Amino acid sequence: QEHSSKAESFYNCVNKQAQGTGLEVDAGALVNITVFALLANAGPCDQQDAADKCIDLADRIEAALQNSENGKTRRYVLTKCCKKYRQLKRNTNVQAQDPTGLKTTAGFPKELDTKTPIPTTTKK
Q: Model confidence over 58-102: pLDDT tens digits?
């Protein structure tokens, strides 16, 4: 599953949103983490941890672009990609593929809660 079209789309999204921000190396490292999190021998919370790191990167991209409209747009796009990544199936048996509720620790990004809509950016 780590090389499915949906996973490849996610990897491209991360790299594209990080371009020109000075965070390209961090984006590349995140892509590596997300690939390994989808492998069969990955820990049960690795995919969630990788999605959390993705949200952190989205926040850092917005900050790197000084909270500009471009930064907010990139954060919005990457957050949508992070949410889709969190729902990807892993290379495991059917029972382990359920992408819901494995991790319930404090600090769970609200953006990854599939019941919480992602806020849209609006121009002022």
A: 999 999 999 899 999 999 999 999 999 999 988 765 555 455 555
Please provide residue 100's backbone torsions phi and psi, each rounded to the nearest 5 degrees: -115, 140
| Sign of the torsion angle spanned by Cα atoms 49, 52, 56, 62 | positive
Question: Using CA atoms in the order 64, 56, 24, 3, what is the torsion angle rounded to 10 degrees?
Answer: -150
Distance from the first to the final alpha carbon of the chain: 41
Tokens of 6: 């949906």
Q: Give how far Cα 27 sits from Cα of 9, 13, 22, Å.
A: 14, 10, 10
**3-state SS of 78-99?**
HHHHHHHHHCCCCCCCHHHHCC
Record the pTM. 0.72
CB 34 within 8 A of CB 1: no
- CA distances to 38, 76, 103, 107, 114 from 99, in Å: 11, 22, 10, 18, 10
Residue-level pLDDT at 13: 96
pLDDT of 54 strictly over 80 = yes
